């Protein structure tokens, strides 16, 4: 089968990029021909398809790219003509590439699959947060005008106008017409898409996968600490975690950086260690030896790799009961949940998790079986062939 994968970026920038890169290798490993379409970005990995990539988006292009620029149309059409894919599999393509490539793929006769990594098809901001803090679903149905009223895009009237126009032009009806299947990594995502009046018959719920081989360990001995891994920002619940951790005696390691890093370091007590950004081998050691990992998110997390990777390392997860997180946690077996934004509930659950007995090796084996690439391959081929 000939499959064309598309995403804004072609390097390990975030979960969407990691997913597409892993999927590319998985499909190639099974003998499929795979092409790639992304924006020409300085940090991109080398690709034989880079000659088809449209230029890196400038500030001026922000007024044209979201709506389907001439360059994107021409280069994507050329790739379609030269490669002639059976399936075009989209990921995060809004703004830098735009959904125009879904229409072009559909018109070429290719089947179009679209994995939804965030809520951009429902919310112009993509994260369903009002002022970056409060959950908001106003734009799920009807007018997207609240994006303008609340200046949702970076607090800017101009950026919000572009986001609003983008949502109006690439409306539900138009997106459904050119997409054969929306791949939802969580049932929560599928439910929200249906809430936004998307056709449930076009939804396939398919949990993300990882390379479980990188999670193999010789032993599952744990240290005396728990950990957090992720971006130090409001939506990730980093401040809520520090507030809870400050009033408890247990050591915690904070892995990652972000806009709140200096503020959090200023209020954190000595038993809270900020270790910064780490590569996988260090992450494997730090997360793998932690008693548990905390995912204190305060936005609609879809299907976070941080939960999946921790469990595959044999580390249970204490996750906020929000978005798709609860779907990944079996209470008392692979972790526990707490009420998002609730410091007291988080404190109590941290205490319970420190004392609870988990079978770490059994957890790792079950997670590796659930999230392994071969199981995903079988399911995604069913989607492609449907």
Structure description:
The chain is of the alpha/beta class and 386 residues long. The chain has two domains: 2-209 and 372-385, 3-Layer(aba) Sandwich (Rossmann fold), CATH 3.40.50; 212-370, Rossmann fold. It is 36% helix and 14% strand. It contains 14 helices and 14 strands. Strand 3, helix 3 (100-108) and strand 4 (111-115) form a beta-alpha-beta unit. The chain is globular and about 60 Å long. The mean pLDDT is 96.
CATH superfamily placement of the largest domain: Glycogen Phosphorylase B
For the biggest sheet, the summary is: 6 strands, parallel
- CATH class of the largest domain reads Alpha Beta
SSE order, one letter for each helix or strand = EHEHEHEEEHHHEHEEHEHEHEHEEHHH
- Please, what is the average pLDDT? 96
Brief summary:
Helices cover 36% and strands 14% of the residues. With 386 residues, it is of the alpha/beta class. Helix 2 (70-83) packs parallel to helix 3 and helix 8 crosses helix 12.
Name the descriptors.
alpha/beta, 14 helices, 36% helix, six-stranded parallel β-sheet, Rossmann fold, 386 residues, three-stranded parallel β-sheet
Chain-wise SSE layout:
Blueprint: E1 2-6, H1 15-29, E2 33-37, H2 70-83, E3 87-90, H3 100-108, E4 111-115, E5 129-130, E6 134-135, H4 146-149, H5 157-169, H6 172-177, E7 181-184, H7 187-195, E8 203-205, E9 226-229, H8 238-246, E10 252-255, H9 261-267, E11 272-276, H10 280-288, E12 293-295, H11 305-312, E13 317-320, E14 335-338, H12 343-355, H13 360-370, H14 373-385
Parallel strand pairs: 1-2, 1-3, 3-4, 4-7, 7-8, 9-10, 10-11, 12-13, 13-14
Antiparallel strand pairs: 5-6
Helix pairs in contact: 2-3, 8-12
